[in-house]
Design goal:
41% of the residues lie in helices and 16% in strands. The protein is an alpha/beta fold. The protein has one domain: Spore Coat Polysaccharide Biosynthesis Protein SpsA, Chain A, CATH 3.90.550. An 8-stranded mixed sheet has the order 9-6-8-4-1-2-3-11, sandwiched between helices. The chain has a 3-stranded mixed sheet with strand order 5-10-7. Helix 12 runs parallel beside helix 13. The two termini are 25 Å apart.
Length: 304
């Protein structure tokens, strides 16, 4: 099975270079990388041009659309139109991957599943110490293990302040970047006995580490571009996947990711937050599966 790794980025070329470096060492070798660029300047283009010359196991595609505000959903839709993989793996341009990251996603891949991993949030000091050369020479998993007591953020604050989210956040912040087949098996076994609705409720849903069958993503028409500037489209996208009958499935403790530190782009309050919640409520109430302005309708930007 061929994977398409869909990476969203915007003007963080140093982080993107480290992400691409971490993907070079993947144990699974049949994949492509699609950088979904939300209007970055030339520095990002130069990083991609440099990596295209590198000896690497993947083809590197670059989708770019004009900078018109924070629009990660639109960038992803454009990149997915160019993707040729059977399975889409979504990460952000600040997510470093364990060498078994893609392998772990594909081992759990089934036609009607949406796979959810997690990520440990690295603190500002440790993120600033990491470099592309350091990751190439030593590997992020080794660096993380050696710095385990000092590299993670002290607090993990999800957008939704439910007690279950807070508990999940604390567990993942402590153990989420530990590749453990035994812990992964136990978590998967727990999930297997739950009814499908509970699988969705207990899933550690994050837009920066998840994957799904390419045909399933196309069936729901990708991300809803009605969200516009500001983001927040991930949750509604997951709701439509659930409405389509997909099953949420964990790849915790196997599809391990390390989240480089940065300020949040998503607004936790205000007009954009209210607009996003209104779209989500409409999706829940209507049982909508396919958005009206998404992947199929996306017609701007270009592949470089």
């Amino acid at each position: 099975m061929k994977a398409s790794v869909i990476i969203t980025t915007y003007n963080t070329p140093t982080y993107l270079a480290m992400v691409l470096e971490s993907l070079i060492s993947q144990t699974h070798r049949n994949f492509e990388v699609v950088v979904c660029d939300d209007g970055s300047s030339d520095d990002t283009h130069e990083v991609i041009a440099r990596f295209r010359k590198r000896d690497k196991p993947f083809e590197l595609l670059h989708y770019w659309n004009e900078d018109s505000g924070f629009r990660p959903g639109q960038a992803r839709n454009g990149g997915m139109k160019a993707a040729s993989g059977d399975w889409f793996v979504f990460i952000d341009g600040d997510i470093l991957t364990h060498p078994r990251f893609i392998e772990s996603h594909l081992k759990a891949a089934r036609p009607n599943r949406v796979l959810f991993g997690a990520r440990v949030k690295l603190n500002e000091v440790f993120s600033g110490e990491l470099t592309e050369d350091l990751i190439r020479e030593r590997g992020i998993e080794r660096i993380y293990k050696e710095a385990f007591s000092r590299c993670r953020e002290a607090e993990y604050s999800p957008v939704n302040e439910k007690w279950t989210d807070a508990l999940n956040g604390k567990i993942m912040q402590r153990y989420g970047a530990t590749w453990s087949p035994f812990a992964a098996m136990a978590w998967t076994g727990f999930c297997a006995v739950l009814p499908r609705p509970l699988k969705w409720k207990t899933a550690f849903k994050t837009g920066s580490n998840f994957s799904a069958d390419a045909q399933l993503v196309k069936r729901v028409n990708g991300f809803d571009e009605a969200f516009g500037i500001g983001g927040g489209e991930d949750g509604e996208f997951f709701m439509r996947l659930s409405n389509a009958g997909a099953v949420a499935w964990p790849v915790l403790f196997s599809a391990v990711a390390y989240h480089l530190n940065h300020p949040d782009n998503w607004e936790h309050a205000g007009e954009q937050r209210d607009k996003a919640l209104a779209i989500e409520r409409k999706t829940i109430e209507s049982g909508k599966v396919r958005c009206e302005n998404g992947l199929a309708e996306h017609d701007y930007g270009l592949i470089k």
